[in-house]
Amino acid sequence: MPNNAAAGLSKGRILIIDDNRTNTAMVKDVLLANGFEALSACNGPDGIGAAAEFNPAVILLDLIMPGMDGIAVCRKIRGLNLPLRPSIIVVSVKNGKDAMVEALQSGADDFIVKPIHEGELLSRINAQLRIAEFYKGIEEDKKNLEKILSITNAISSTLDPSEVLGIIVKEVAEATNAVRCSIVLIVKDDEGYVLASHDDPGVKDLRLDLSKYPEIREAVATKKVLTIDDMAAHPLTEKIKEQVKGLKGMSVLIMPIVFNDDVLGTIILRTRRGGRRFSDKEKTFCNVVANASFHAIKNARLFEKVTREKEHLREMAIKDQLTSLYNHNFFYTRLEEEFERAVRYELPLGLIMMDIDDFKKINDTYGHRAGDGVLKDISALIKKSGRKTDIVARYGGEEFAVILPHTTLKGSFDEAERLRHLIESHTYAGLLKTRITMSLGVAAYPNGVMNSGELVNRADNALYKAKWNGKNRVCMDTEEEDDIA
């Protein structure tokens, strides 16, 4: 079974598979003396197990062993699904071309003839490590390109900025093994907002006081990538050492997102690297992502602006500009919906139509600006005093309508009377000597009402009756006003 080698900083893990213990001990001494970590196994099956468990960088494999020879072991190892492909150097007393060809064809990378020369062994191991490092770099480049492609595809395939920024921080965190990856929008020197963070997808527009983040301010000021190997020990964090004392050993990379010499934001990575610094490839990768992030953040702000404008246009389409109540058209849309619901579930539905008494005199006496003020005040009174489920609309001119879901004719009458008194008792700016009153008409479903249009007509007729009977009163759409249910 494998034996652990000396501890300490290792140049690489080497597995020796050899049934000759003397030869194994000699090779292990050489490796340890030259800074490698050495493991050993004395037969083929144990060697295959060690290769799977410890994932060595290089395997020194004896060709002639009892039971399972080196060729069979080599083929078995090449069939394993390992995180990193180990280099296999076959070591044999056989020095014929046929043995070398067979070893290389079975998956070996190199061949050494015993007895082993120390210099040759180290040179060949180092050569394989350089090759492995080269291919590792290619594999990292491939993964980084795949992540960049994923990010650019996300940017082009969705208008949802939250989704794009979420993908960016996720991909960067995976590529760098970050504990946290965040994108921060810089608003002012001392103010920023976390737009996305991979460790908490719910974070959005979280405000940051940048006076507590000198590392971010430094990166923004210099417009250059900033790396810190230990947050708790860096001079930049001296003034906030109490806040960062829990980040001992935490490495940080801050990549400014710069466009046309303006810093829009930063990508921030936090990771524990055990003394290993951020590589140039990681910095380059983050720089590419930062450039892509600029457009994502820009699109995010543009998307939000367009969304707000669309919402504003929608509000303009359904609301009255002066009073901010629903307009005439939207009133009919909502009334039809509520009427259908009332019929389906056999629920009552009330409607109040109301008109300001002698409104023309107010405009003629005090001017249209004063008249507009009255309309606004009355709108606010009706809206504020009603239930959340009530639908209040400006029906036209000085006329208003209130849809009352789940409300009987009597309940609608009581509400109308309450509104009449509320409006009459209110003091209006600039009209201290003038009393404002309203006439109101009430109707309700069912009470023989067949459709929403008839409900409006009945409430309208009741309103006209209130006007003809002296104004400042509430009337219903029934001849027998005592019979209300």
Set down the secondary structure blueprint.
Layout: E1 13-17, H1 21-33, E2 37-41, H2 44-54, E3 58-62, H3 70-78, E4 87-92, H4 97-105, E5 110-113, H5 118-157, H6 161-176, E6 180-188, E7 191-197, E8 206-209, H7 214-222, E9 226-228, H8 241-244, E10 250-259, E11 262-272, H9 280-318, H10 328-345, E12 349-356, H11 359-366, H12 368-385, E13 391-396, E14 399-405, H13 409-425, E15 438-445, H14 452-468, E16 474-476
Parallel strand pairs: 1-2, 1-3, 3-4, 4-5, 15-16
Antiparallel strand pairs: 6-7, 6-11, 7-8, 9-10, 10-11, 12-14, 12-15, 13-14
Quick gist of this model?
With 485 residues, the protein is an alpha/beta fold. It contains 14 helices and 16 strands. α2 (44-54) packs parallel to α3 and α6 runs antiparallel to α9.
